[in-house]
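To the wet lab folks,

You asked to see what we're planning to order before we commit. Fair enough. Below is the target structure as tokens, and below that is the sequence we designed to fit it. If anything looks off to you, flag it before the synthesis order goes out.
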């Protein structure tokens, strides 16, 4: 097995382990905070933030991950954090309003299936996944652009 194949295998194993750990954290967080005031929002904040970290810094279908200690990440960290907090704030407001509206929605949206899920909660999950993938893609674009700028600066020196 060549070095490149070992690196790919290591990346896949790391990505798989990270996926499993995030899933366990997600389930435990929702179970622990389910009955607490604003527990769903707190759990969503934790899981969404971990998901963004995973999609940006681990190798996924979106591409290779970025190293946390790279110059591009250090240069862009404040901007990325600000954008993440803004998106997260909007999603939490959206979630809070949606959960308040839930009892007033038509019955077919709140009817539970055999797995105790409703169409309403599934739609909320789809919204969060779409926004999360879009945010991670945008962050990757920002970091890729920063890496290119860094390479240009090094060539000019």
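Sequence we intend to order:
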């Amino acid at each position: 097995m060549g070095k490149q194949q070992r690196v790919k295998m290591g990346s896949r194993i790391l990505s798989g382990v990270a996926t499993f750990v995030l899933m366990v954290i997600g389930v435990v967080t929702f179970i622990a905070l389910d009955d607490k005031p604003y527990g769903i929002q707190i759990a969503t904040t934790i899981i969404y933030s971990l998901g963004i970290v995973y999609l940006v810094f681990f190798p996924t279908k979106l591409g290779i991950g970025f190293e946390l200690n790279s110059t591009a990440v250090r240069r862009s960290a404040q901007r990325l954090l600000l954008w993440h907090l803004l998106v997260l704030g909007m999603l939490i407001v959206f979630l809070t309003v949606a959960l308040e509206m839930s009892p007033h929605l038509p019955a077919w949206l709140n009817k539970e299936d055999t797995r105790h899920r409703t169409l309403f909660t599934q739609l909320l999950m789809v919204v969060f996944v779409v926004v999360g993938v879009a945010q991670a893609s945008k962050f990757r674009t920002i970091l890729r652009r920063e890496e290119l700028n860094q390479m240009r600066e090094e060539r000019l020196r």
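Structural context that might help your review: DSSP finds five helices and no strands in the chain. The radius of gyration is 19 Å.

Thanks,
Computational group
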